Amino acid sequence: MLKSKTFSPSIELLFTCSKINANDDKITSLLSEVINWEQLIELARANQVVQLLYLNLKDKNIPPAILEKLKNQYQANLLHNIRIDAVQRKIFKLLKENNIEFMPLKGTVWAELIYGNIALRVTSDIDFLVSPKIKIIKLAISEKEPMMRSARD
User: How many CB atoms sit inside 10 A of residue 108's CB?
Assistant: First the structure.
C-alpha cells in the first residue's frame, strides 16, 4: 500500500489556487501556515499558473510585496495577451475573408472559452489548423497589418 505524500503548505496553496473556483476555506486555512512566498511564486511561474494564483489570492491577507509581484505579472500577461489577441483576430478575419477554413488550437481563443478571461492563460504565439486543401500559408505580421500570401507568391 502506498503512503500518501504530504506537501508543504506552499505547494498545497499552489495546487489549491491553480483553478478558477478554488476552495476559499482551504486557501484561508493554508494562509495561516508558514508560506515560502518566493518558492510559491517561482513554482507558479514555472507551471504558468501565476495568473490563477493572483486571481485566488488578490483579496486575501498576504504580504503586500507578494501581492504586488503577482499583480504585476498578471497585468503584464494580460497586456501581452491583448496584443496577441488583436493580431489573432486580424489573421482570422483574413482567413474568413479568403474562405479558408481554420480552427484555433490554443491561445486567447481557448483562454476565453475555458476561463472566460484571456489573462488567465500564458500565450506566446498563435496556433491554428487550416483546411487540408491549403498547401502552405505564409503569414507576415507587422505592427500595422497582418498580410497573408500563399507559398507560391
Answer: 23
